[in-house]
Design goal:
Layout (H helix, E strand, L loop, with lengths): L1 H8 L3 H16 L3 H24 L10 H30 L10 E3 L9 H23 L7 H18 L3 E3 L1 H9 L4 H12 L6 H31 L1 H4 L5 H37 L1
Helix pairs in contact: 2-5, 3-4, 3-5, 4-5, 4-7, 4-8, 5-6, 6-11, 7-9, 8-9, 9-11
Length: about 280
């Protein structure tokens, strides 16, 4: 219902329909379990968005513009998704002892046991479902909330995740754990945004959320990501034997890192301002 409403009211119906068709096609190429989770995840986020819109649960008391309220709901979903994925990443780390030799880089579906890479497959599929929904949201709101960097991010990781799940083998199980853990910073990003829109930018909690966001962003998306890429290249003798498409995945992971470095410049500036304001107030 939420998806039909989006397409019906969209100023760019053709673009949305094409996007839905492409996403549905690549999802249908997945195994039944992954395809089912991806579709259910998208529907759940779409249904939750509709629920938030109709009930205005956890909305600001004052009525804001249509564009701001739509972004408010989108950020609520992003916060929920980030918490789910962060918890999922910890479960993915805990799967490593159950994996066979080199199974943290690839595992054949036919020989995989039920306790090997289950959480990686599950949370990758949930992640894909959210990205599908949010990409449609970004396209629908392109006229009033244009966010090219987020669109590039979503298309990049949708392509990577689908490629790593599809076929007879799961690839790059190990990198998924630290990649999904980067969502640790996302809740703080949205919490500080909610504080601004609620007129509480000068509050203690805004400063706490700002500092927590900056520190978790720099730790997970710059420091941890850097070590992840080092680990990736140390295992190059393994993945260089994978299908040629894996090289595009590696390139995509480096492009994602470049996006993080681009955002990190702004984050460092925000951290400096937050720490300065904290010191001044004290």
């Amino acid at each position: 219902m939420a998806l039909k409403c989006i397409i019906r009211n969209s100023p760019d119906k053709a673009e949305l329909i094409l996007c839905v068709a492409v996403l549905y096609f690549i999802t249908s190429c997945q195994d039944p379990f992954e395809a089912s989770v991806i579709i259910k995840s998208s529907l759940c986020f779409g249904g939750l968005y509709t629920f938030l819109r109709e009930t205005r649960v956890f909305h600001p008391r004052q009525h804001l513009s249509y564009q701001i309220e739509a972004e408010w709901r989108s950020r609520q979903l992003a916060l929920i998704h980030a918490v789910i994925l962060t918890v999922g990443s910890v479960l993915c780390f805990l799967e490593w002892p159950n994996l066979p030799e080199q199974g943290d880089w690839f595992i054949t579906k036919a020989t995989r046991s039920s306790n090997e890479a289950f959480y990686t497959c599950l949370f990758t599929s949930i992640f894909l479902g959210y990205l599908h929904w949010d990409l449609l949201w970004l396209i629908y709101h392109k006229a009033d909330n244009y966010d090219l960097s987020s669109m590039v991010h979503h298309v990049l990781y949708i392509s990577i995740s689908h490629f790593l799940l599809i076929g007879d083998t799961y690839y790059f199980i190990r990198p998924y754990a630290w990649l999904s853990f980067t969502e640790l910073s996302t809740p703080f990003l949205h919490l500080r945004w909610f504080m601004v829109l609620s007129g509480k930018k000068n509050s203690k909690w805004y400063k706490i959320f700002s500092i927590c966001f900056a520190l978790t962003f720099l730790f997970t998306r710059v420091v941890l990501y850097t070590f992840g890429l080092i680990d990736l290249w140390q295992a190059r003798k393994i993945w260089l034997k994978f299908p040629l498409g894996i090289y595009l995945v590696v390139a995509g992971l480096h492009l994602g890192f470049a996006l993080n470095l681009f955002w990190a410049r702004k984050v460092l500036g925000a951290l400096h301002r937050a720490m300065s304001n904290w010191s001044t107030n004290e």
